[in-house]
Design brief:
This protein has a single domain, classed as Vaccinia Virus protein VP39 (Rossmann fold), CATH 3.40.50. The chain is built from seven helices and seven strands, in the order H-H-H-E-H-E-H-E-H-E-H-E-E-E. A seven-stranded mixed beta sheet has the order 3-2-1-4-5-7-6, with helices on both faces. Strand 6 and strand 7 form a beta hairpin.
């Protein structure tokens, strides 16, 4: 974060919300701190998020990505984040799992520029940002390429689970995050509820 700023550490902010954050390494927390600082700096010039402080950014967005961790493959994997926006959840997942390689799809120019800058600054090897929409990516080599597909708040969760199917190779997985409480899930989809800052959410898991 910016020199001289007084704020709780990223680790402290995350630990208030996600107990598992206490197991994150110092190197991971340092990169998360760099990411949050870079996003807030860019947000002063171009509007990337409604969060204006580190605490708001962690509570409203970054912590949410940690609830995906139990649903990631155990072994190194290749993933795609469609409509990555400001890097949530894909860029954060790459920080949390440095053994993963991935692609962040973001067609909006200012958001893609931020993602490319953050990847360079944090030296996230194996991660790329592409200025493509889902349909174009499927036409240019994305079909059946990935072990994991994620997206956050770009489509309704059930719609995303279907749209993501062509991206995934056999044995892969699609993850969605759902706000609120829904009474049911599509057949074959696992639902894993959690609370974050008093809000009810859930991870939806589709194995292919």
């Amino acid at each position: 974060m910016t020199a001289g700023a007084r704020h709780p550490s990223i680790g402290e902010l995350l630990a208030r919300i996600v107990p598992a954050a206490g197991r994150l390494t110092a190197a991971t927390l340092h990169q998360l701190d760099q990411y949050v600082g870079t996003l807030l700096e860019w947000n002063q010039r171009i509007n990337l998020t409604g969060a204006r402080t580190a605490q708001e950014l962690v509570e409203q967005h970054v912590a949410d990505a940690l609830f995906l961790l139990p649903h990631l493959p155990d072994d190194p994997f290749c993933f795609v984040d469609v409509g990555s926006g400001n890097g949530l959840p894909g860029l954060v997942l790459r920080i949390l799992r440095p053994d993963a390689g991935g692609v962040l799809l973001e067609p909006v120019r200012k958001k893609h520029a931020f993602l490319a800058h953050a990847i360079r600054q944090l030296q996230l090897q194996g991660l790329r940002a592409l200025p493509e929409r889902l349909e174009r990516h499927l036409e240019t080599g994305g079909a059946g390429r990935y072990d994991l597909a994620v997206s956050r708040a770009t489509w309704p969760p059930e719609e995303w689970l279907e749209l993501a199917r062509p991206l995934i190779r056999p044995g892969g997985r699609v993850l969605a995050q759902e706000a609120g409480v829904n009474s049911g899930v599509p057949p074959g989809v696992g639902r894993h509820p959690y609370l974050i800052a008093g809000r009810r959410r859930a991870v939806l898991v589709l194995d292919l």
